[in-house]
Design goal:
With 511 residues, the protein is an alpha+beta fold. Helices cover 39% and strands 10% of the residues. Helix 8 crosses helix 17, helix 10 runs parallel beside helix 14 and helix 15 packs across helix 16. The longest helix is centred in the last third of the chain and has 18 residues.
Length: 511
């Protein structure tokens, strides 16, 4: 400390605070060593402070302090300091000794000592970003949606095609009717020029690599929980019959479809992006084709879709409407089901009279629905009044489209990609593509097609579907999000969670 310019007195005060060998003690034993009795010097271990440590006298306080530290370090908020630990130990000391702290008394264990204790116990003070990301998983609304999602599938498990346990998974045929085909959907973006995170090098030689990133290709795909899967495709005869009813299946489109399928791709930046209208177009295509798939005859069809805004967008919201006549209105008519279960249609514009062609506004709509006649209501009060009415508590456009074809669409709980089995497809495909490093865009597109064949050849969908049901059971058994990751996705539960990692037969736990 003197080397760094700290004053001698400050050094001595610091050592006294730590209970170390201060200047007075050092001088005493130097004098004993030079002019005193040598045996006295050796018998007393050459001076210094000798005695029990604080935690030697109060081991129960050390146990409590460690527990307190682990609890505070596990919180999302980064507000834990060594001073918090010092205050906790001080409080515990007076509780254990059953004494009262006098005003102005110092801490029984200093902040500096507590900082040393933290490092001795294995705590680290380092960059805050290098940790798993669990933001939002414990939100009350997310947990409520997850519980409903899990209960729905587990209560109807006998209606679905499931997978046996063991190293060689096999299909379990549904024991109840109607048998249900479960289809998972999601999108993912592939970037040409992406490389694997690690590779082998020999000696000091390293190959050249491309600088920057190339063009991107966005893929929107489905995997089928059925022995006829994992990918959906009609044979030539089935597709011919579908074209007779729906000739628009062959109509030109900005979306690139694999022949006789609904698997779609877009060149990002050139062919726009997968927005809600594009997603609706893709889903309507597969809805039209499903009825012609012979393997799905007499089956119910259900979809699990990622909970993204491009999927969950609604045709209208109460917040989209103005209060008065002639104000903003996003839709001409609203179809809804009333409390009696009858289908109704509400006109949002006047069809006749002095206001013909003008929007009604929330106040006129509320009067028409017999919700209120008070003219002094403000806009936010009208929005709150009408928010729970069937006119405005509508489902998403995608769910409404599914209802037209008698197909159920369910949204995966937010932040729970482990409950959407198709995420494993992206893991496998991206590992396959990235291992062929520094590819051009054309090469990447070819590799994407080859990676689908690789996924099907390895039958990775069997393990992914089995994991889906195991995750549902684990949540139902009281496991938390982090515990589920550690059980089934252990390589993602430590360090920084990555969106896509390698998924293989050996990487999928069987327990």
């Amino acid at each position: 400390m003197r080397h760094f310019g700290v004053k001698w007195k400050d050094c001595d005060d610091f050592l006294i605070e730590l209970g170390g060998t201060n200047g007075k003690t050092a001088h005493k034993w130097a004098d004993v060593f030079i002019s005193g009795d040598f045996d006295e010097f050796c018998n007393d271990n050459r001076g210094g402070k000798r005695g029990n440590e604080f935690f030697d006298c109060f081991p129960e306080i050390e146990v409590s302090a460690k527990t307190f530290t682990m609890e505070r370090c596990s919180r999302k908020a980064a507000d834990f300091t060594a001073n918090d630990l010092a205050l906790f130990i001080d409080e515990q000391y007076y509780l254990v000794t059953q004494t009262v702290k006098e005003a102005g008394s110092p801490l029984v264990r200093s902040t500096a000592s507590c900082r040393i204790d933290l490092r001795r116990w294995g705590a680290r003070f380092e960059q805050n970003g290098n940790r798993p990301y669990f933001e939002g998983h414990e939100r009350a609304d997310v947990i409520l949606h997850r519980d409903k999602f899990i209960s729905y599938f587990l209560e109807r498990k006998d209606h679905y095609y499931t997978i046996t346990d063991g190293d060689i998974p096999k299909w379990i045929i549904p024991s109840k009717t109607p048998a249900t085909v479960l289809i998972f959907h999601d999108e993912s973006t592939f970037k040409s020029g992406e490389v694997s995170a690690k590779r082998w090098f020999f000696g000091n030689q390293a190959p050249f690599h491309s600088k920057g990133r190339g063009r991107s290709n966005m893929v929107s795909d489905f995997i089928i929980q059925h022995p006829a899967g994992p990918f959906f495709q009609l044979d030539e005869n089935e597709y011919k019959r579908a074209l007779e009813k729906y000739p628009e299946l062959e109509a030109p489109s900005d979306i690139n479809y694999i022949q006789r399928t609904a698997t779609a791709s877009i060149l990002v930046g050139y062919d726009a992006y997968f927005d809600n209208p594009t997603i609706l177009e893709q889903f309507e295509r597969i809805f039209k084709m499903l009825k012609y798939k012979g393997d799905f005859k007499d089956h119910a069809i259900e979809f699990i879709v990622d909970n993204a805004r491009t999927h969950t967008a609604k045709s209208h919201s109460v917040n989209d409407f103005g209060k008065s006549i002639g104000t903003r209105c996003p839709i001409e008519t609203i179809n809804y089901v009333d409390s009696q279960g009858r289908k109704q249609t509400l006109d949002c514009y006047f069809r006749s009279g002095p206001n013909q062609g003008l929007s009604k506004g929330l106040f006129e709509i509320a009067k028409e629905l017999k919700m209120t006649t008070a003219s002094n209501l403000k806009l936010n009060e009208l929005q709150k009044l009408l928010g729970d009415h069937p006119v405005f508590s509508t489902t998403s456009r995608l769910e409404q489209l599914g209802d037209q074809y008698n197909i159920k669409v369910m949204f995966c709980p937010k932040f729970h990609s482990e409950l959407n089995a198709i995420e494993g497809l992206w893991c496998s495909q991206k590992q396959f593509v990235r291992s062929r490093t520094d590819q051009t865009y054309e090469t990447m597109c070819r590799l994407i097609a080859e990676s689908r064949l690789y996924f099907k050849e390895k039958q990775l969908q069997m393990k992914l579907f089995r994991r889906f049901w195991r995750c549902l059971s684990a949540y139902k058994g009281g496991q938390t999000y982090q515990q589920v990751l550690q059980l089934f996705l252990s390589n993602m539960a430590s360090g920084t969670i990555k969106q896509h990692t390698r998924i293989s037969n050996t990487g999928l736990a069987d327990n």
